User: Which sequence fits this backbone?
DNA sequence: CTCAGAAATTAGAATCATTCTAATTTTAAA
DNA sequence: TTTAAAATTAGAATGATTCTAATTTCTGAG
């Protein structure tokens, strides 16, 4: 995986939630020959190793994120994603569930500040 | 929306989590002329009205679900979805978040009983 | 070093889910 | 009725992602 480290670095330092396409475009600046399929291969690999997270929100392409535990605020208007560190619910959930939990994904729907502004000023 | 009521009925009574394709196949038995695009139109409509939920899990087509508040157990192996009614976290979340929450989506990853059996008996 | 096999990358076709467009049909209501 | 709006149909189009086959790069045993 020639590009895995660079891609991991990109995801870990960028505080956006990049799509495969966006990562591809940034990688292409440094490695003009690189191809989108390679980016997907690397991303799938990193994801399988648990080094990155994949965030799937309906109506949007998958985005990639740091592997650290955190939750997401998702704007219902524009789909914008914001990281948010809430209390870890694992124990609380586990106490209510028979089977053992691997992890969980919490997406909180709201209207992001930018969209709220737009709507209000109508 | 000629089919909206039937589709809503289907989703509300079936305790599976049907995909658009599956709903289409069932509807076709009763209405042989119906077309997949119409099913999507009806589903999008019902979803926009808040009468059904759409469940998006990475690597799987969207599935449709009753609108009642509940969470999901998602099998990390096969993607199988199971409804689970946990305590409502809204207040707990709201107390930690500045912006106002519309709703949230909690997917809990685990290995479903069927997959667990498969793995163990190796 | 060097060669063989394994792993990764490339190019581009293929796939799958979903949406879109345009034409037609149905519905509703005046 | 007639007319306009809404829904449906047929099938093309889109977008994201995966797949296939050919090529390149890497690795490590000799």
Assistant:
């Amino acid at each position: 995986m020639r590009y895995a480290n660079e891609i991991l670095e990109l995801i870990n330092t960028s505080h956006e939630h990049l799509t495969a396409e966006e990562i591809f475009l940034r990688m292409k600046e440094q490695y003009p020959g690189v191809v989108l399929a390679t980016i997907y291969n690397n991303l799938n690999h990193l994801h399988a190793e648990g080094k990155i997270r994949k965030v799937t929100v309906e109506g949007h392409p998958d985005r990639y994120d740091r592997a650290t535990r955190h939750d997401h605020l998702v704007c219902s208007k524009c789909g914008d994603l914001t990281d948010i560190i809430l209390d870890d619910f694992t124990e609380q959930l586990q106490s209510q569930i028979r089977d053992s939990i691997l992890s969980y994904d919490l997406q909180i729907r709201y209207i992001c500040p930018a969209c709220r502004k737009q709507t209000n000023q109508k």
